[in-house]
Amino acid sequence: MARLTVLVAALISTSATIGLAVAVETVMPEWRDPEFGHRLKRLRQNETPGRPLVVVLGTSRTQQAIHPAAMGFANVSGSPRVFNFGQSASPPLKVLLTLLRLLDAGVRPAAVVVEVLPVWLATDRSGEDFFGAKAATLSRADLRHLAPYCTNPDVLRSRWCAARLSPWSAQRFILMSHWLPRWVPWNVRIDFQWDTMDADGYTPFPHPNPTAELRAKATEHAHREYMPSFNCFRPGETSIRALSDLVERCRLDMIPVAFFVPPVSPGFRAWFTPQVWAAGETALATLASELDVPLFPANEYADADFVDGHHMLPAAAERYSRWLAENHLKPWLVRKGVIP
Hints:
Elements: H1 2-25, H2 34-45, E1 53-58, H3 60-65, E2 81-86, H4 92-104, E3 111-115, H5 127-131, H6 140-146, H7 153-165, H8 167-170, H9 172-179, H10 192-195, H11 212-226, H12 237-252, E4 257-260, H13 266-270, H14 274-291, E5 295-296, H15 314-335
Parallel strand pairs: 1-2, 1-3, 3-4, 4-5
Helix pairs in contact: 4-6, 4-12
């Protein structure tokens, strides 16, 4: 009887492991990578036949600055449907991976708009360096997409295999954030990533009027994050290659693509020496010119419009989204024949 009990327990454990590993690879991508999976789910839940899909790719700056509902596009056939597919901590390589994931999922946008902050181009990490600690969020197809950008693809592959062999451990905080969020320590709880997301993928900063203390803490974090680039700028080879490959893939699929520079505060720009900021702008302008991609400039906003100098607050995001749509996005979509 004891032997049978052990055997049954082993079968249940094995079945649960295999079942979860298969689920995160196929029907439940949000259990693997919540930011991507829940955005894909929202995109599919709110499909609007007859409206060309415009996908905006980028970082958390895009998440909190691009408010499609504020752009003024009517919910009628022929009018563009803009969807915010920004994801936090996204260097150009992750932005490229997001596009490839969407295409793998059968999503074919009518146009793609990509956030490119000039100093962000300095990011130059290999695939295994950036994604190694996040291997559990990747799919098997992702490994194939990232292999050309890895110094040693086997490193990333081995970490991914380890995560799939013990998915209940590797995905535990993601699963608990879905099922039992109150049981998760606040500093690793991530249910806000989908609870605050609207039907168009927009994720506003949760505090429309942040306190001075919150602003100071967020600004200190941003200052520390960007400090290595304050006095030196060198375009990262991986970043330039990823953006170039993104444009090439869009063109192969006949998808118009444009870049946009997200707004940042005067205080944020002042952290960088004038030479560094100018070098970043020159590098971006050169890249856009070489790729023959239109570059939508940033509009000017005050320090008070941001929580930390580069993440917009909701009221400013509405104004910016309206301005971007009227002055750049709509005219470009008309020129490209995406909308009449």
